[in-house]
Structures are given as C-alpha cells and as structure tokens.
C-alpha cells in the first residue's frame, strides 16, 4: 500500500495530533518529575500524542508486532506515515520512508531456536522506517535517533490464556519517544546538524533491521556524530533516583556526562551484569565506531517478554516527562559543534571474541 493511501486507511488520531503546536520549557531541576512540578507540566498535546501512538502500536490488533511479519510491516507503515506527515525527507528505499530487507533463508539456527515457540509463519522480510530532518549549517554532521518497532508477536499462553506479546514497554515506548521527538524537532527551528529518525524492524530476531540500515545507510556512516537508541522507557526504574533515565555504556564515552551537563537526567546503567550496552540496536552501530548508546528506564520488571507487557502497565506520567526531558539536550547536541568521543580503551571491538549476544535479549522461557 502506498503511503499516500495509508494516511487515509490507518486510524488518524495520532496523525492529527501531530499538527498541533507544542511548547516546552528548559529546566534546571534535578529530575524531570521535579521539573514537571516546578514548571508547566508537559502539554496536553504531548500527552495525547504519547497515548495515541502507544495505543496503536501496543494494541491487540497488531498481534505483538512480530519480527518480519505482516504486523511488523503495519507498524512500520504507521510510523512512516507519521514521519511523512511532518514534511521530513524520506530516508528509505526509492524516495520512500520505508527500507525493506530480505532475511536469510534459512534463518540462522540460533534464531530459529529462539522463535520455535512462537507463531509458525514465514518470516522473509523486515522493514525499517526512516526520515531525515536536514540541518541548516552543518548538514553533513548527523545525530541519529532510533528505536525498534517490532516485538515477539503471538506465542505461548500465560496463566491467563493470553498469547499476544504486545510489547508496550518493549519497545512501543521507545518508538513513541522517537516519533514524539521527530514531531517536536521538525516543527521547531531547524537544527544546525541533520537529524535522522530510524525505527528498526526485526531487532528481536537478531538485529536484521539495523543490519539493513548499516548496509544501505541514508547518510554516510562516517557522518553520524552520535546515536541515541530509546529502549523501554515506559516505566520508572526503582534502582535509580526518581525522575531519571539511565544510559547504557555510560562510562564508555563522554556523551552521557555531556548531555547531563546540558539538562538530560541521565545516570549510569544500574544493571551492569545485564550487559545492556550489547543488547540493543545501538551495539551494531558502536561496532562501526559510532558513539551509540541506549536511553532506558527498564527496571527488570517481570512483564519483560511476556504477554503482560501491555498498555495497562505503562506509567504515562513517567514516560511523557522522560521524553520531554530529552528535548532540550538533543536540541543542544544538534545545534552544537561538540563531538563525543570514546573513552580510552572503551570503544567496542568490531570483532569481539566469543558468541555475540542475541541482539537484544536473552532467550524467552
């Protein structure tokens, strides 16, 4: 289906909300929750947009947005239509906002083992949604904002008989964050640097979407100054102070500390044993030398990779404030001349020893 037709065929709630104005205020508060109390709370428009996008992406009718399924494709079309409606430049195939990639046949044995318990359907193609906000004075320097739009699909029933792995936190929340940031940044003053918004497919299968992006990037990879991946920001993490997010690989580069100096409520990843730096799409980019790290507030909740990861579990106040808290730091990064660097000895090896992680997460039980 062509994107021009899609705009009339998908529910229009979130698309219409994107036309409404948004106002934000800088804050020097210690946390984004405190900032919301000291200043005007995030606008009603922002809250409505977050709710609308989440309601679509995590709805039962998308059957968990299973990697490389028709439902992932629908999610990618939805995201692409939102990006197109903002007047952004297409970053996908042939002047579109979609990038399609064929999966290997057969799939790697490890991937087949991973999905054996889930819906037995052909998984032949995956889709990314990509858009470009061209910079004004430094268009050849790029800030990349990403998330993954897929999840696990239909799988084993839980004790309630639910077989739909909606993936509200993982990672409809991150996808919504990138869409919301795209709206706010595209409708404000254009930044000096170019910003690319990329939503990857098939992360849960092993990162096939990010591989397609790296193989056919919409901008030269050497032009990417930094990548921020948004992963599971739908609930607060009790392991960190209230009103903060954490950044994977915080001590690997100077990106996190510098963003914190400019208002980002980011702290070090409190779960180092989980090795989260290597468990999302950012890692493949980091192996190319790009400063690529993931923003999250995942508190190791029990709904991870379960049918219970549903809309009802999302803390929308936390999530909306979290997204709002990143606006000004990202604007600063996109308008500055500053470039992050790896800390000595902390750049990831492009060919690490031992088996690679199964790109995002440990096997599902």
From TrEMBL:
Residues 338-365 are annotated as: Disordered. Keywords: Signal. It comes from the Bacteria. Residues 128-322 form the Peptidase M28 domain. Residues 1-26 form the signal peptide. GO terms for molecular function: metalloexopeptidase activity. GO terms for biological process: proteolysis. Gene3D superfamilies: Zn peptidases (3.40.630.10). Residues 353-365 have a biased composition (Pro residues). It holds the Pfam family Peptidase_M28. Residues 338-349 have a biased composition (Basic and acidic residues). The keyword Cytoplasm does not apply. This is M28 family peptidase.
